[in-house]
Design goal:
The chain is 30% helix and 23% strand. The protein is of the alpha/beta class. The chain has three domains: 1-40; 42-238, P-loop containing nucleotide triphosphate hydrolases (Rossmann fold, 3-Layer(aba) Sandwich); 252-371, 2,3-Dihydroxybiphenyl 1,2-Dioxygenase, domain 1 (Roll), CATH 3.10.180.10. It has an eight-stranded mixed sheet with strand order 9-10-11-8-12-15-14-13. It has a seven-stranded parallel sheet with strand order 3-2-4-1-5-6-7, sandwiched between helices. It is elongated, with a radius of gyration of 24 Å.
Length: 372
């Protein structure tokens, strides 16, 4: 066990926060810490809180946190916020609403920017859930951004999913039923002191009656006053706990590879655009010189042949995946043609190339996340 993992298991909040930041930034040491903590995960109850914008999800999470702390339960709150178009960080509305808990050592609150990820979650949410679970938290509450009918990624991560609705939605209940309505283990009708709460309940019951399947609990709440929160907790505990799936994480772009005649000449061009070389090395196995230039969350990889018979001669796109060997096995099983077995490449990243005939005409490289 790494020193960081040991500190996290001992309850060091700073070590936990550092690891969370590292996982969000794909830091190799943080990812190694997460792997070391994996045997300790599997004890927390993972609860997803989702629903349309304005349903009061943050206030409801805040009320649930207070109720759990009265029971002396420990918890982590992962609040997924929209990404600021200016700073690129999370718009911290959720943290502001939960400020009263920040001095409580039994609650760890983390706001996460979506960083363009669809589905209502941030790309690193699954990793942070595992981290909080392994750190010994009794509950992990995940609050998604305001979602619509297609943004149901939370269902693959949470054991129990609470869909929050409010009076006044009108036909919106019918509009979104094809998406988040079908993933609910519990429905919370929040702001139920307002007119229309009974109508929302009736519409839910009618819709569930037509489905002929499972019957999620329906609980009325007023999060601002605490009404119904204990009943909601009871429903969360009584609901069927799904095994957390291990969905195939959507890959992200690691870099774009550009084959060039001269690194020196090409670098000068890209530097004129404001990019700077962060890594320059020779890869003997590939008979190539490589220069990496960070560009936002991705990179541009310039490749210059170091030998006349170098196989490098094509531009390519590289996708980052959590496990290259597992991805390669899935591709081979589906009939894809791989150009090499997974092996270390530039920067020590484990990688594999996929033949253009299998990808629709583009040379594709898969690189492992832990090496980025």
């Amino acid at each position: 066990m790494t020193d960081s993992a040991r500190q996290i298991r001992e309850g060091n909040a700073r070590a936990l926060a550092r690891a969370a930041t590292g996982i969000e930034n794909r830091d190799p040491q943080a990812l190694e810490t997460l792997r070391g903590l994996a045997p300790f995960a599997g004890h927390a109850r993972i609860v997803g809180i989702t629903g349309p914008p304005g349903a009061g999800k943050s206030t409801l999470v805040d009320a649930l946190a207070s109720a759990l702390r009265r029971e002396e339960k420990t918890l982590a709150i992962l609040a997924v916020d929209p990404t600021s178009g200016i700073s690129g960080g999370a718009i911290l509305g959720d943290r502001i609403r939960m400020q009263r808990h920040h001095a409580d050592p039994g609650i760890f609150i983390r706001s996460m920017a979506t960083r363009g990820n669809l589905g209502g979650l941030a790309r690193a949410t699954a990793g942070l859930v595992q981290l909080m679970d392994a750190a010994g938290k009794d509950y992990v509450l995940i609050e998604t951004v305001g979602v619509g009918q297609a943004e149901i990624e939370i269902a693959g991560l949470a054991q129990v999913t609470v869909v929050v609705l409010v009076p006044g939605m009108g036909d919106d209940v019918q509009t979104i039923k094809a998406g988040i309505m079908e993933i609910a283990d519990v429905f919370a009708i929040n702001k139920s002191d307002q007119p229309g709460a009974d109508r929302v309940e009736q519409e839910l019951e009618a819709m569930l009656g037509l489905s002929g399947g499972r019957k999620p609990a329906i609980v009325k709440t007023v999060a601002t006053t605490g009404v119904g929160i204990d009943k909601l907790l009871d429903a969360i505990r009584a609901g069927p706990v799904r095994e957390r799936s291990a969905p195939i994480a959507a890959p992200t772009i690691d870099h774009i590879g550009i084959a060039v005649r001269s690194l020196e000449d090409s670098i000068a061009f890209y530097e004129s655009l404001g990019l700077a070389v962060s890594q320059w090395e020779s890869v003997d196995a590939g008979k190539v010189h490589v220069a990496m230039l960070p560009a936002g969350d991705s990179r541009i990889e310039l490749l210059e042949s170091s030998e006349p018979d170098s196989p490098i001669g094509l531009h390519h796109i590289a996708l980052r995946v959590p496990d290259v060997r597992a991805a390669a096995a899935r591709l081979e099983a589906s009939g894809a043609r791989l150009l090499n077995v997974p092996r270390p490449g530039a920067g020590g990243q484990l990688h594999v190339f996929v033949h253009p005939a299998s990808t629709g005409g583009v040379l594709l490289e898969l690189v492992e996340e832990s090496g980025s």
